[in-house]
Design goal:
globular; alpha+beta; six-stranded antiparallel β-sheet; 26% helix; 5 helices
């Protein structure tokens, strides 16, 4: 009877078996005033063994849970993109997918310079003139900043390009993967989107 009362008072303890007896080696969630000694000898049998849950097992489960959480966060990191010829992958965070913010993050252009090239009509989104700097973009969109005409071929332009490879929403803003081309040779855009400046690139 005394043994059952002690078992009820100690919901979580660890037992180490020594022959016919078990020694209480650790305690959790119990009132220490109810024990007269740090180690109490209790009769030990198979039924008693199945009643107790080891604190070590709980610690192991907590560590395993932490590892699982880390692996989940790694899975959420998204696909890996590698640098290609003449391009570099930029991983960064932005407050939104605005064109000007992505230009600043991808090409490292200062905000006042973005203002200037915008009013000079030197920004193209998927080959079309950028009407508003605050326009929201999506994965796969291409942003071109026209640097000028090519000296070797006046019908072609030298541009710096940013391609949105992926974007994932976070608690604050977005995590994005951008591919940056510092210098690309492209044909002049057609129609109203054509670049008509007389500036010549230093490329």
């Amino acid at each position: 009877m005394l043994r059952l009362n002690i078992l009820k008072q100690l919901p979580r303890i660890t037992l180490v078996s020594y022959g016919k007896h078990a020694t209480v080696t650790s305690m959790q969630c119990c009132d220490t005033n109810k024990l007269t000694q740090s180690a109490t000898q209790l009769p030990f049998n198979a039924t008693t063994r199945n009643v107790f849950i080891s604190c070590r097992l709980e610690k192991y489960n907590r560590k395993s849970g932490a590892k699982d959480a880390e692996s989940d966060s790694e899975d959420e990191a998204g696909p890996e993109f590698k640098d290609e010829r003449d391009s570099k992958v930029v991983k960064t965070k932005v407050n939104s997918l605005r064109a000007d913010l992505l230009l600043k993050a991808g090409l490292g252009i200062a905000r006042n310079k973005i203002e200037n090239i915008f009013y000079e009509s030197r920004i193209r989104i998927n080959g079309k003139k950028l009407a508003k700097k605050s326009v929201q973009l999506n994965e796969g969109d291409e942003i071109d900043v026209i640097r000028g005409f090519s000296q070797q071929n006046p019908s072609h332009l030298v541009v710096s390009r940013v391609v949105i490879l992926s974007s994932s929403e976070r608690e604050e803003g977005y995590s994005v993967n951008l591919r940056r081309y510092k210098s690309l040779l492209v044909e002049n855009y057609a129609g109203v989107n054509a670049f008509k400046s007389s500036a010549v690139s230093d490329h």
